[in-house]
Write a structure and sequence with these properties.
CATH class of the domain at 24-155 and 188-250: Alpha Beta
Number of helices: 9
Strand content: 15-25%
CATH superfamily of the domain at 24-155 and 188-250: Decaprenyl diphosphate synthase-like
Radius of gyration: 20 Å
Distance between the termini: 39 Å
Number of strands: 9
Shape: globular
Length: about 300
């Protein structure tokens, strides 16, 4: 097992303080919903809500990193969002440029690696350049990988991967799950362990359709600009209570320890990529919960 970076150890200590047996997901995906409603509740234009949503994202990246999460993937702009009013779409495009200019230096200093996924065809040149700048400027960082899905759709992702098989002249028997995964937008990261949606809606909206096959889902009424440490801890605590079998059945021995190994104030990786934090001498107590659950709102 490779030694974890200092930032991961810090996250382990924070996790241990919150629970004697906290299972932290390696990869969290988030649909950041509710910006417009947050603004409307304050009699402000929708654009103001999106601006506050960017502020919430910058805070969330560091909060998730502090807790040991390695990958955070957020849905910023879907391929269906072009249907929104032109004024709002143009505002979102401009907001990305402002966000890169305002926060890129901070994210770089915080050890965040930024990656952008989605169809860049049709995206304005200035925006495409800003995405490339964000990726190249942070390519050396290792604390956490922030992936921003922009002009992205899960169906688009699968279609473009299949097109690669045609372009590369692949024979049918050469195209299997492993090959398709290698052609998809998230080929550089493990599949999401935890899928969070804010804003009260209970759907995944064409986000990471393939990759979320075995993700645990957490829905909250909390609007994205209000999603802070309290809500993050509630989502991670809910994830820690889930029993993940990936289609299999746990043995009695595995159930007794929930299939994980205790470590003292540090992190350890499971075979499925989930990072585990525990205090020394603690014994986990299995909690039987449904594989998909709606948690109460954290406000």
């Amino acid at each position: 097992m490779s030694e974890l970076p200092q930032s991961a150890a810090t996250g382990a200590n924070l996790a241990a303080q919150r629970s004697d047996d906290l299972i932290v997901p390696a990869h969290v995906a988030v649909v950041m919903d509710g910006n417009g409603r947050w603004a409307r509740q304050r009699f402000m234009p929708r654009f103001y809500g999106h601006k506050q949503g960017v502020e919430a994202l910058v805070r969330a990246v560091n909060s998730f990193a502090d807790r040991g999460v390695q990958y955070l993937t957020v849905f910023a702009f879907s391929s269906e969002n072009w249907k929104r009013p032109a004024e709002e779409v143009n505002g979102l495009m401009g907001l990305v440029l402002v966000a890169v200019s305002k926060y890129l230096s901070k994210l770089t200093a915080d050890g965040v690696r930024v990656r952008i996924i989605g169809d860049r065809v049709g995206v304005p040149d200035k925006l495409r350049w800003a995405c490339e700048q964000a990726e190249s400027s942070t390519a050396h960082n290792q604390r956490i990988t922030l992936t921003v899905a922009f002009n992205y759709g899960g169906r688009w992702d699968m279609v473009q991967a299949c097109r690669q098989a045609i372009i590369q002249g692949k024979a049918p028997e050469e195209v299997d799950e492993a090959w398709l995964i290698s052609q998809m937008a998230m080929s550089f990261a493990p599949d999401p362990d935890l899928f969070i949606r804010t804003g009260g809606e209970m759907r995944i909206s064409n986000f990471l359709l393939w990759q979320s096959a075995y993700a645990e889902f957490f829905f909250t009424d909390c609007l994205w600009p209000d999603f802070g440490d309290k809500e993050i801890d509630a989502a991670l605590a809910a994830f820690a209570r889930r029993e993940r079998r990936f289609g299999g059945i746990q043995s009695a021995a595995e159930q007794s320890v929930n299939g994980r190994h205790a470590v003292s104030g540090s992190a350890q990786m499971e075979g499925n990529g989930t990072r585990v934090y525990r205090l020394a001498g603690t014994q986990p107590t299995p909690v039987q919960t449904p594989s998909a659950i709606v948690e109460p709102a954290s406000r």
